[in-house]
Design goal:
- A 7-stranded parallel β-sheet has the order 3-2-1-4-5-6-7, sandwiched between helices.
- It is 47% helix and 14% strand.
- It is α/β, with parallel strands linked by helices and 268 residues long.
- Helix 3 packs parallel to helix 4, helix 4 runs parallel beside helix 5 and helix 7 packs across helix 8.
- The protein binds NADP nicotinamide-adenine-dinucleotide phosphate (NAP).
- NADP nicotinamide-adenine-dinucleotide phosphate binds next to loops.
Length: 268
Amino acid sequence: MESIRGKVVLLTGASRGLGPFVAEALAGAGADLALVARSAAGLQEVAARLAAHGGRVAVIPADLAREPQRAEVVHRTVAELGPVDVLVNNAGVENEGAFLLQRREEIREMVEVNLVAPLELAQLVLPAMVERRRGQIVNIASVAGKAPLPWGAVYAASKAALAHWARSLRLELAGSGIEISTIYPGYVRRAGMFARFGLEPPPTIGAVEPEAVAAAVLRALTGRRRELIVSARPLRPALALAELFPGAGEWLMHRLGAVEFQRRKARG
Ligand SMILES: NC(=O)c1ccc[n+]([C@@H]2O[C@H](COP(=O)([O-])OP(=O)(O)OC[C@H]3O[C@@H](n4cnc5c(N)ncnc54)[C@H](OP(=O)(O)O)[C@@H]3O)[C@@H](O)[C@H]2O)c1
């Protein structure tokens, strides 16, 4: 088992939702953390809570939808904590709704934050990792990156692209000492973008606790796991079936109540 004690972790999306849970789990395991998001106040609050763990914490407010701020985030992390050992691409945006009604800015925001920012952050941290022959990148995708998500089509596309990029890059970097992991959470209750809707998913799908996602990030890092699905029900067979037979996948989505639930969720 790999230890993350004393490692420098750059965690995006650390101000609210699942990020603080991930921060707590990693700080608890002894990591030093650079916390990134737009809300400085949110990050400060999380940093204050992490103080009990005794590790170093840097608060780095930044808007990851803006390209120049991505390089600034990495620059400040290295300056304040040292070379980045681990990048956790957790920041994400889900602008829900009917695709035909979606504004261009909403589409671009999802693609920039969910996909382009993780790729660029990886390009910024990887050269030093390759040189040191060690480093880990963890991407928080979504089950929506494996299964279709009506009224969340662009979000699903951004997550599928992120996951597929990770799979490709993993092969490209094989033997370099760099590990790349992807986490696929299902609906998460109590905190985060899904919990804010205040809806309970159909029992056939269910929801997981935020701590389970945080534990998966830690497991991916310490156990060098390639991919982890964090869902309330065992989804792997259904996801594999949907990949092989898209028609069966759509039938299953209806059968599980997922299509109707997404429609209801998008109506608000
Ligand atoms: N919650 C779920 O049910 C669920 C399920 C599957 C996957 N996920 C994935 O899990 C990750 C975390 O989601 P969450 O539920 O914690 O969402 P959330 O509660 O909406 O939090 C999103 C985080 O990303 C940050 N962020 C958003 N836009 C940003 C920007 N332009 N620049 C910098 N930071 C930005 C937010 O901070 P600021 O607003 O302060 O910038 C916040 O810290 C996402 O990638 C999401 O897609 C979540």
